[in-house]
Design brief:
InterPro entries (chains B, C): 3-oxoacid_CoA-transf_A (IPR012792), CoA_trans_fam_I (IPR004165), CoA_transf_BS (IPR004163), NagB/RpiA_transferase-like (IPR037171)
Largest sheet of chain B: 7 strands, parallel
Structural class of chain B: alpha/beta
Keywords (chains B, C): Transferase
Number of strands of chain A: 13
Mean pLDDT of chain A: 96
Strand order of the largest sheet of chain B: 4-3-2-1-8-11-13
Family (chains B, C): Belongs to the 3-oxoacid CoA-transferase subunit A family.
CATH superfamily of chain B: Glutaconate Coenzyme A-transferase
Oligomer: heterotetramer
Largest sheet of chain A: 10 strands, mixed
Helix content of chain A: 10-25%
CATH topology of chain B: Glutaconate Coenzyme A-transferase
CATH architecture of chain B: 3-Layer(aba) Sandwich
Distance between the termini of chain A: 15 Å
Pfam family, one (chains B, C): CoA_trans
Protein name (chains B, C): 3-oxoacid CoA-transferase subunit A
CATH class of chain A: Alpha Beta
Distance between the termini of chain B: 51 Å
CATH architecture of chain A: 3-Layer(aba) Sandwich
Low-confidence stretches of chain B: none
Helix content of chain B: 10-25%
Low-confidence stretches of chain A: none
Shape of chain A: globular
Number of helices of chain B: 5
Number of helices of chain A: 5
Strand content of chain B: 25-35%
Strand order of the largest sheet of chain A: 4-3-2-1-5-8-10-11-12-13
Mean pLDDT of chain B: 96
Chain lengths: ~220, ~230, ~230, ~220
């Protein structure tokens, strides 16, 4: 069966290492914060200028001057630092963030990503996404494997305008965990009960399938 | 009175000199840390054909969004816009121009503008629509695009506290784009919640040194919240 | 123990991994705010063929000057050098290479290095020996030269207080080049006068966020004064 | 008679305006701080990261962490701010300093300045001088009009390696105050008792002399 939103977040959380500075995009990536494994500490970077994002505030703690990049009210964790947008993107662009997790419309075998613009629809802007994908060494893209109409989002060439070129190495979909290298998707894990055949069928870009593809397990 | 006293006592004085067609750089992220009263003053003045450099364009009835009502904005240079219906309408009708700029590039363009750096290279946007028409150059095997800096006729900034010399500190994440905006205006106007005497702010804790600031005014603020999210206590 | 605990307990540990031929970026201006014990540790290790990026090169028996004794420095990238006799001797003998860089350009090269900006344009040095061989480009009718950023294998930094997560604040003008140096090292080592617990430094007052810092060590400092000038009280 | 060091400082001080942010170079420029006119306040910028430099400390106040760009112990004036070298030169390069005063070896009719390097002698470095001359709109260069051997330092073309190209508009020597424009030095004032003839003789570059050249007066 396809992974639930929570399972996607759980699987991504396994990529976290103790001491990681992590930027989580809006949507499913935000849920990762709920599944940080025992014994591991990470610090969340919010690109509006906060390193060490804490939980949402209680009613009493709400403060208009304390928000995250999703414009939600938040708190600062112990040991947090707060700084300007220029400093925040110096961190991001300079490659100091250990892991970035974000959503996308499409990725392709060359590590290109399209996530911000659908021609013909109203364009609201890229926000910090282009900086995040250009700056990070270690990025996980999370998305559904195919559209509702069954069209693959893992392509030979992205069809939508790009957010970044050649920068994506890991993709987690609702069906599989894949790595991108040498111009192909490499199937690493599949969702519980999802067959390799289904993944092959729903992957338009070149897919390398090893002899054994382990199934993800969830507690 | 000291030549360093930057305090003005009315919003008319604060925005005096703003003219049709000027470029205004504004601090703020979403509705957080925006110079809300300076924006309201621009609304009141009715100045037209303005170009705004600001990460966002407010909402329908708050922030820069209120300048859409009388079509005061000609162009937005922003990373994320369209949280309001009027914006969408004017954009689709071709009455409003938008130059979408990645958030980090936007912050750096403001900083560079204030720091006398006319252009810099960044990997952000290479290979995307943002990079089209821009010079591409390779450094250490990686491709970068050249981005030019931004300066404004005015910069409008929201601080927390300022002293009369124009030294400013910001509160929490209301800092965001404000310090860079402050450096990049020919005339920089800062509105704050509290004005203190010189010497009351610790020299090493000042975020914006007074050399960047031309006018300081004390305001009172609504500080509207865009996404009110809470946990159970 | 948290993965964010950056504290090390010996100078050996602080500088572990430094190898011959590496590039080291050092904070400090003159003898003010220099990482004096980290420098002393490099002396002790005897590492050779080092390139140092630092505004100055200390004096005969203090600061980076002490690394000249055993000829540990191959090259200095600095804005002002030669406050000591040994430096002069090695320079004239061709045993030491110097790349003189304007002070503001040097600071910006470090910042750019840490911020993922491979190059920027500045008017500083245009038409002078500093501009020779560098690309010239005109923006708005003025000529600028392209300067490339600097990063180091190590950055050595002197802070005032740090928390165990590596968040650092600097004291008075001992700040100088230290914040930029901190961003530009593959491994950034900060020595401080006091280590406090996370949460003790106010988030908006932190000069160097811990994300840039790999190791923190508490030292004791001589803090030598170069030009002792006083007035009568 | 040629101006004394103190008179040079006094004359420069008359260029100060209330509310000016000023960077004073090492040597004679530093003395300007002693002659700030009544009713005028200026803030001194020291490029190592201090805006609002105060007087030297008393013995009790001396602090190794509090120095100026000349590496002298100083104090902070009321309302001072302290920041990094990058921020300091952002101010300077960005043209936010109202007046810069510095010494030089030579200037020429095109506003070029040479102040940091004499080939064949040991080169110690340019420090912040190149940034200061490139960044400031308003610069006063102060120097002796001619060398001890009587050779002019106000030239058609600088002979020494430049500190900056086309950036100097005002020069105060021990003999005269001059402005540089349209490829010439324009004589504005002469030192008390110094003849126009002497200034003409000691100026190698093109010199424009108006009908009347006022004499400087000192209290």
């Amino acid at each position: 069966m396809a992974l639930s939103r929570e399972q996607i977040a759980q699987r991504i959380a396994r990529e976290l290492e103790d001491g990681f500075y992590v930027n989580l995009g809006i949507g499913i990536p935000t849920l990762v914060a709920n599944y940080i494994p025992e014994g591991i500490e990470v610090m969340l970077q919010s690109e509006n200028g906060l390193l060490g994002m804490g939980p949402f505030p209680t009613e009493d703690e709400i403060d208009a001057d304390m928000i995250n990049a999703g414009k939600q009210t938040v708190t600062a964790a112990t040991g947090a630092s707060i700084f300007s947008s220029a400093e925040s993107f110096a961190m991001i662009r300079g490659g100091h963030v250990d892991l970035t997790v974000l959503g996308a419309f499409e990725v392709d075998v060359n590590g290109n990503i399209a996530s911000w613009m659908i021609p013909g629809k109203l364009i609201k802007g890229m926000g910090g996404a282009m900086d995040l994908v250009a700056g990070a060494e270690n990025i996980i893209v999370t998305m559904t494997h195919a559209s509702k109409h069954g069209e693959s989002k893992l392509l030979t060439n992205c069809t939508l305008p790009l957010t970044g070129a050649g920068c994506i190495k890991k993709v987690l979909t609702d069906l599989a965990f894949l790595e991108i290298k040498d111009g192909a998707f490499h199937l690493k894990e599949r969702a519980p009960g999802v067959s390799v055949e289904e993944i092959i069928e729903k992957t338009e870009g070149k897919l390398v399938v090893p002899e054994h593809v382990p199934e993800m397990t969830f507690a | 009175m000291s030549g360093f006293n930057k305090v003005v006592n009315s919003y008319e004085e604060a925005m005096a000199g703003l003219e049709d067609g000027m470029t205004v750089i504004a601090g703020g992220f979403g509705l957080c840390g925006i110079p809300e009263n300076l924006i309201a003053q621009i609304r009141k003045m009715g100045t037209k054909e303005l170009t705004f450099v600001s990460n966002n364009c407010g909402v329908d009835d708050f922030g820069l969004g209120i300048l859409l009502v009388d079509r005061q904005i000609k162009k937005m240079i922003s990373s994320y816009v369209g949280e309001n219906a009027l914006f969408e309408k004017q954009l689709l009708a071709g009455e409003l121009e938008v130059e979408l700029t990645p958030q980090g590039t936007l912050a750096e363009k403001m900083r560079a503008g204030g720091a006398g750096i006319p252009a810099f290279y960044t990997a952000t946007g290479y290979g995307t629509p943002v990079g089209e028409g821009k010079e591409v150059r390779e450094f250490n095997g990686r491709k970068y695009i050249m981005e030019e800096s931004i300066t404004g006729d005015f910069a409008i900034v929201k601080g927390w506290k300022a002293d009369t010399y124009g030294n400013v500190i910001y509160r929490d994440t209301a800092q965001n784009f404000n310090p860079m905006a402050a450096t990049a205006g020919k005339i920089t106007v800062v509105e704050v919640e509290e004005i203190v005497q010189p010497g009351e702010l610790k020299p090493t804790e000042i975020h914006t040194p007074g050399i960047y600031v031309n006018r300081v005014i004390k305001g009172s603020f609504e500080k509207r919240i865009e996404q009110r999210t809470v946990r159970q206590s």
